[in-house]
């Protein structure tokens, strides 16, 4: 591992901790702290933002496995970046590459790798997806 890799990893950890602190503080205003309620609130935010897209998001694992939910979420905020209707759920690599690139171009911190998502198959680690989706929330929470 190079020194630059360590700095990059440390920067990602800082972003994650900051995002979690922000979400936790907002959740505490609503109800006493409950980690499950934070996960549920972020899931509801995704479902709200993805209304009108032909994707069904019910969790932070299998719902994101083909890359279509990531594409829909970033398309919601960058509709001119690509034609969502031309995407194919069978093209997982292409979907992840597109979503992650457009997301990064729009300020989302790149926490997931395409190859990691492909290796996880149809049941990605929910904690990885949840953490990455928090960065979408952080970047886009104030946009309609």
UniProtKB/TrEMBL annotation:
Presence of keyword Nucleotidyltransferase: no
Entry keyword Secreted: no
Domain of life: Eukaryota
Residue span, Calponin-homology (CH) domain: 36-141
UniProt entry keywords in alphabetical sequence: Coiled coil, Phosphoprotein
Family annotation (InterPro entries): CH_dom, CH_dom_sf, F-actin_Monoox_Mical
SUPFAM superfamilies per the UniProt record, alphabetical: Calponin-homology domain, CH-domain
Membership in a protein family: Belongs to the smoothelin family.
Protein name per its UniProtKB record: Calponin-homology (CH) domain-containing protein
């Amino acid at each position: 591992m190079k020194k630059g890799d360590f700095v990059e990893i440390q920067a990602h950890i800082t972003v994650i901790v900051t995002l979690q602190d922000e979400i936790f503080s907002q959740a505490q205003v609503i109800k006493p702290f409950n980690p499950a309620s934070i996960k549920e609130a972020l899931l509801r935010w995704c479902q709200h933002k993805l209304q009108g897209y032909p994707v069904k998001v019910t969790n932070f694992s299998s719902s994101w496995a083909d890359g279509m939910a990531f594409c829909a979420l970033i398309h919601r905020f960058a509709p001119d970046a690509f034609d969502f209707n031309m995407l194919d759920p069978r093209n997982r690599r292409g979907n992840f590459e597109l979503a992650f690139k457009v997301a990064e171009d729009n300020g989302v911190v790149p926490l997931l790798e395409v190859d990691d998502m492909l290796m996880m198959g149809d049941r990605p680690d929910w904690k990885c997806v949840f953490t990455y989706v928090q960065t979408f929330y952080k970047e886009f929470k104030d946009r309609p």
